[in-house]
Amino acid sequence: MEDWRPVPMTREVDYAPKPIDPDFMNKPDEYPETGTHYDHKILGEGKARTDANGSPYPTKLGIHGTHVAVDWEACIADGVCMDVCPVDVFEWELNPGKKGTGNDRVLDHGAAEWQKYRTDKSDPIRESDCIDCMACETACPTKAIKISP
Ligand code: F3S
Ligand code: F3S
Ligand code: ZN
């Protein structure tokens, strides 16, 4: 069968991204509320977690959003979530006002932002506009997104 998807734009990272824990909202010890960002919550920022190989993630980023939740440890800047969302929920964190595949800010290895983020991240800045079409959750290559209607 032919692959209908365009070439993925994920950025290379030095860890193995793991899908978002679909049950994260029921695990306040692992994912405590650690802040807010625009109109959405951040859960688990600053907490050490392990990647798909059981190694510690080099970053300590949390989950942004609850209705539209993006695990920033798992997001490696593919951008397809933004391409498919019919109501423009997402924007790049490090390239404000920009969205979509190839429009992420690519970080220089060793720079302070690379230390903190590794790649740009999809931020659900208009979470409350989500109409639960589920396209983003289905399309993300690392399964970083969980929709909880
Ligand atoms: Fe990130 Fe997945 Fe979107 S890798 S940019 S959440 S498609
Ligand atoms: Fe958009 Fe995903 Fe909601 S594609 S409408 S944020 S389910
Ligand atoms: Zn955010």
CATH class: Alpha Beta
Uncertain ranges = none
Number of domains: 1
Overall mean pLDDT score?
Answer: 94
**H and E string:** EEEEHEHEHE
Q: Estimate percent helicity.
A: 10-25%
Determine the CATH topology. Answer: Alpha-Beta Plaits
Query: β content, as a range?
Result: 5-15%
Structural class assignment = alpha+beta
Report the principal-axis shape: globular
Bound molecules: FE3-S4 cluster, zinc ion
Distance between the termini: 33 Å
Number of strands: 7
Supply the number of helical segments: 3
Largest sheet: 5 strands, antiparallel
Spatial ordering of strands, largest sheet: 1-2-3-4-7
The rounded Rg comes to 14 Å
State the gist of this model.
The protein is an alpha+beta fold and 149 residues long. It contains 3 helices and 7 strands, in the order ββββαβαβαβ.
